[in-house]
Design goal:
- The protein folds into 3 domains: 47 residues, Uridine Diphospho-n-acetylenolpyruvylglucosamine Reductase, domain 2; 116 residues, Uridine Diphospho-n-acetylenolpyruvylglucosamine Reductase, domain 3, CATH 3.30.465.10; 111 residues, Enolase-like, domain 1 (2-Layer Sandwich).
- It contains 11 helices and 14 strands.
- The strands form 4 sheets. A 5-stranded antiparallel beta sheet has the order 4-5-10-6-7. A 4-stranded antiparallel beta sheet has the order 11-12-13-14, sandwiched between helices. The chain has a 3-stranded parallel beta sheet with strand order 1-3-2, covered by helices on one side.
- The longest helix is centred in the last third of the chain and has 25 residues.
Length: 294
């Protein structure tokens, strides 16, 4: 590992300026659970590390009056796991955060780091994508928002320009009769996912699907949304036939590769299975508390 300078800015603007000045050789430090591994193989070498932990706004979980949430990029997995509002309204996100490593990792790893590491197997990213999260990006021109999928370019690559940083993730309020689910498949405890899947569903007054979304991890170059799912399921009842349709659509959307964890064929099949289970979990939650979201 090469020598680098360490900076601890007090504001988002200062952090952005430091990163713009350092360019490709600068890295942000939030939890650091991925960064210190990356330092050993960075090309070009990292010469500047910018610590974001001293910026209070980045570590805040702010609940809006409508129930939506703004998650600061430096919010830890442990904080998400333990937050009452998230556990009640966004339980799939709390479950995904709880699946990241062990307790010491969750006390350090941050949601912004998990997202910006751009791993296709990240656990929180499919849930955030299925829930319609927006990325709040700060830069020289102030804040801007973009759909979460627009943040990822490929494995380990994001679309932010020099001088920009992810400062928050904004979760829209969940409508009444809504639910979400998260499922993952691993080889062993604390291993990264072979496949993971998240689902979000809203039911109408008759108990049929008004809207639905499924996102898949570890089956493509980025976390991906299952295209056309909302249209394919609109008006359908929550039954086995509809779940089978979810499974087929998810398997068809997967674009996996063979690697040392699993074959592409196995991943494709399991993408359908995990999506079906996540959707069944989402339905159960939507049906369990009419007029509420879970």
């Amino acid at each position: 590992m090469d020598d680098f300078s360490y900076h601890a800015p007090a504001t988002v603007a200062e952090a952005a300026a430091l990163q713009a000045e350092g360019g490709a050789t600068a890295r942000f430090l939030a939890g650091g659970s991925d960064l210190f591994l990356a330092l050993e193989r960075a090309d070009p070498p990292v010469t500047r590390v910018i610590d974001l932990k001293g910026i209070p706004a980045l570590a805040e979980i702010a609940v809006a009056s409508d129930g939506g949430v703004r998650l600061g990029a430096a919010v830890t997995m442990a904080a998400i796991e333990r937050h009452d509002h998230l556990a009640t309204r966004y339980p799939a996100l709390a479950a995904a955060a709880a699946a990241v490593g062990g307790p010491p990792i969750r006390n350090r790893a941050t949601v912004g780091g998990n997202v910006c590491n751009a791993s296709p197997a990240a656990d929180t990213s499919p849930v955030l994508l299925a829930l319609g999260a927006m990325a709040v990006v700060a830069g020289p021109g102030g804040e801007r928002e973009l759909p979460l999928a627009g943040l990822w370019r490929g494995p380990g690559r994001i679309t932010l320009a020099p001088g920009e940083l992810l400062c928050a993730l904004r979760l829209p309020a969940r409508p009444p009769r809504s639910g979400c689910g998260f499922q993952r498949l691993t080889r062993s405890a604390m291993d990264i996912a072979i496949v993971n899947a998240a689902a979000a569903v809203t039911l109408d007054g008759a108990g049929r699907i008004a809207s639905a979304a499924v996102a898949l991890g570890a089956v493509g170059p980025t976390v991906l949304a299952v295209a056309g799912l909302k249209e394919a399921l609109a008006g359908s009842p929550p039954d086995d036939e509809t779940l089978a349709r979810v499974e087929r659509l998810a398997a068809a959307a997967a674009r996996p590769i063979d690697d040392h964890r699993a074959s592409a064929a196995y991943r494709r099949e399991m993408a359908g299975v995990m999506a079906r289970r996540a959707m069944a979990e989402a339905w159960q939650r939507a049906q369990a508390a009419p007029g509420e979201a879970a």
